């Protein structure tokens, strides 16, 4: 745990709990996280409303991943963690769920602090936040 790894190339995790801090390190920009939360919420709404309008089921991943990818490319300026492997894809979806819940319950800050410390990443600076 004392070894600091580059957030772009962590050691391969063997569990979701090992993956979670890396996932968080890829979502440090507040706009990226907001787009993930909004996308997940809208996608969830699409799934829930699909019995009334079935095409919403097809719209759910477009809305959810579309907003998330905008957050990664335009604000975070990194590649989505889900693109690394099939396991990362599954864990990233689970990470989206956890980030959605922890953001809505106000508990995401402790995970952000842990990821910054573990990966030796400083807080998002004002210039980083406005550079996009």
Keywords:
mainly alpha; disordered N terminus; single chain; 132 residues; disordered C terminus
What would your notes on this structure say?
This protein has helices spanning 16-25, 30-49, 55-76, 86-104, 108-118, 126-131. It has one domain (16-131). The radius of gyration is 15 Å and the shape is globular. The model is unreliable at 1-7 and 126-132 (pLDDT under 50). The chain is an all-alpha fold. The protein is built from 6 helices and no strands. α1 (16-25) crosses α5 (108-118).
Number of strands: 0
**Overall geometry:** globular
What is the straight-line distance between the termini? 33 Å
Radius of gyration: 15 Å
Number of domains: 1
Count the DSSP helices: 6
Write the layout of secondary structure elements.
Layout: H1 16-25, H2 30-49, H3 55-76, H4 86-104, H5 108-118, H6 126-131
Helix pairs in contact: 1-4, 1-5, 2-3, 2-4
Quick summary of this structure?
The protein is mainly alpha-helical and 132 residues long. It contains six helices and no strands.
């Amino acid at each position: 745990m004392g070894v600091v790894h580059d957030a772009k190339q962590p050691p391969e995790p063997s569990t979701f709990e090992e993956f979670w801090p890396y996932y968080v390190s890829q979502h440090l920009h507040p706009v990226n996280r907001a787009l993930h939360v909004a996308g997940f919420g809208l996608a969830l709404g699409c799934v829930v409303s699909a019995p009334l309008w079935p095409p919403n089921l097809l719209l759910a991943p477009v809305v959810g991943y579309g907003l998330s990818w905008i957050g990664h490319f335009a604000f975070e300026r990194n590649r989505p963690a889900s693109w690394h492997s099939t396991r990362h894809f599954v864990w990233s979806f689970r990470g989206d769920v956890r980030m959605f819940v922890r953001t809505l319950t106000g508990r995401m800050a402790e995970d952000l602090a842990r990821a910054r410390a573990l990966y030796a990443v400083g807080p998002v600076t004002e210039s980083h936040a406005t550079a996009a």
